[in-house]
Amino acid sequence: MSSSSSPRGFALSSRLVHWVMAVLILAMLGLGLFIAHSSTTHYVTLLHLHLITGVSLLVLVIVRLLNRFVVPTPELPTDLTTPMRLGAIGAHLALYGLMIAQPLVGWAMLSAGGYPITLGGSVTLPPLIAPDPALWANLRQLHTILAYSFIAVILLHIVAALFHGLIRRDHVLSSMVSGK
Amino acid sequence: MSQTSSSRLLRWGCVLLPPALLAAGFAWAAGLFSPHRLSTARFMTVLENGGGAAPGFRRAHSKGLCVLGQFDASGAMTAYSSASVFSQSHIPVTGRLALAPPFPHIVDGPGIVRSMALRLQPDHAQEWRTTMNDPPLQPMRDIQDAFASFSANQRDPVTHKPDPRLAKAYEAARPWLKTAYAANRAHVMSSDFANDTFNSLDSFQVTNAQGENHTVRWSMVPLSPPDAPVRPEDAHDPNVLFTHAIASLHQQPLRWNLVVTIANPSDPVNDPSQPWAPTDRTITAGTLTLHSSASEDNSPCGGMVFDPTILPSGLSLSGDPLPALRSAVYMRSFVKRSGEAKDPSSITPAMTQPH
Ligand code: HEM
Ligand code: HEM
Ligand code: HEM
Description:
The structure holds two protein chains of two kinds.
Chain A: H1 12-36, H2 43-70, H3 82-112, E1 117-120, E2 123-125, H4 133-168, H5 172-177
Antiparallel strand pairs in A: 1-2
Helix pairs in contact in A: 1-2, 2-3, 3-4
Chain B: H1 2-29, H2 40-50, E1 63-73, E2 91-99, E3 114-120, E4 128-133, H3 143-152, H4 164-172, H5 178-186, E5 198-199, E6 204-207, E7 213-222, H6 240-251, E8 254-262, E9 281-294, E10 315-317, H7 322-338
Antiparallel strand pairs in B: 1-2, 1-9, 2-3, 3-4, 5-7, 6-7, 6-10, 7-8, 8-9
Helix pairs in contact in B: 2-7
One protoporphyrin IX containing FE (HEM) binds at residues 43, 47, 58-61, 64, 96, 98, 115, 117, 131-133, 138, 146, 201-202, 272, 305-306, 322, 325-326, 329-330, 333-334, 337 of chain B.
């Protein structure tokens, strides 16, 4: 069972930020894929929604990291095999890496392309880097590669979470759902 | 035994079904189940089949010249729009004069659509990018027309030429484009870039400080006298229009008035193929002065995109369906060419130097 210093479930703040970000990230992946693969008269509106949500997610991941260092998190079940334990830690690290990198790459790529990033009215996000067309092409490709990697890791993460809850029937799924 | 194994199967189903459905949702968003959905990639394919997809060059308006200058607002548009570009003077301008076909080394000639793209960058205020062509109307009214039109211009893989019957069929199937074709055929081309009128074709919305909206189109109307007629020794210059523009700019600045047309309530504001009433109110918003030129090979106008949806606050999209489409397709063209090694342009840096 969990040691005395670590709680059994995730604190409310951790669960809240996990689920809010999960919904937003899934929506962003779907939205990004849709705008990149359809010609629609709503393109500009949808891309704007993508930018605003992407920047909000960047703010949220900072909040999440701060929360993670302040609020204690439960430990993985002690009876997990080493590969499963490493897999879980690796997947969580990858998810954090992608949550930080994807919006930064989005911001950097539009800066490299010389696009102004308007948040609303006359509020503009300052460019992260100077215009550089070759870098723009590479970062745009990186945004796609990261997006597909994100999808792959999230799918694995969901399979693992449901495996814990329905097959192993340990406390991992409930630790993030109900905090128990 | 069988009960536990079937409940085990059920539980595995509950583990795998949700991620499988999610993956299917992503595949749908990416168009995997909808091969007929129009997409940026399909637009790029038909555009590239219409030209050579020359590496490093724009996938349309491929042959061009960078121009530098300034814009001085008259102030008359401030009643309609709060955008700084309509109230400031000495606004730095980077632009590009181009020929519309997707061929970077096309021989200049009369009858080829010409264009002017501009980026107005006021100090401490949002920039404005705008693109204009010289025909009076756009022979397409929506995204479907645009796709059909570029599809009809693809080159036959055997003859390497577009099939003129396809363009005829495109026109014949669209009685709503009759007016646009008639107007464009009746349009008399000017001799040069310097004395050409360039039109936004698409409509946009302006908003003033009181929050009132109007739909507008705009044109750059030339103030410069026409250049001298083509001299016999220039007749064989494949870049004659550009050499003229460069030579004129060495002699004196070239100037245009930005004339904004305010739609009246009965104008077809969401259809770039239809004319507006000739009695519509027009406002001279300011004057564009171009004072020098540069090759796109060593000027910033090469490595940037004139996306017509980059608008300062006070200017926004109207219900015209084309600018959104263009934004996505221009981005893809800009990504592709930025990742490719580029051959020298027809208009080289040496050609833009004074002799
Ligand atoms: C967690 C945050 C984000 C996620 C999950 C995400 C996801 C995606 C996805 C899946 C695509 C489609 C990629 C493709 O199929 O090629 C995409 C495209 C794009 N994203 Fe993001 N993105 C995020 C943040 C951002 C941010 C912050 C920006 C800009 C500030 C941005 C700008 C763009 C742009 C410009 C495109 C290209 C659209 C097009 O090709 O027409 N993204 N994004
Ligand atoms: C869609 C985006 C998602 C992301 C980016 C994400 C990210 C993460 C991360 C980084 C953790 C580690 C704990 C933390 O520091 O917050 C975590 C834990 C967890 N997630 Fe997710 N998650 C997502 C979706 C989901 C979904 C859909 C489920 C449920 C099916 C889920 C179930 C869990 C569970 C049960 C844990 C606890 C694992 C443990 O005890 O260490 N997650 N998630
Ligand atoms: C409504 C009228 C349109 C106007 C006034 C217009 C005007 C222009 C102009 C002036 C340029 C050249 C910009 C430069 O010199 O850098 C340009 C480029 C281009 N146009 Fe259009 N255009 C129109 C419609 C379209 C449509 C419907 C499409 C296809 C969907 C299209 C595809 C392109 C592409 C791919 C480029 C090259 C973009 C780049 O790589 O920078 N245009 N257009």
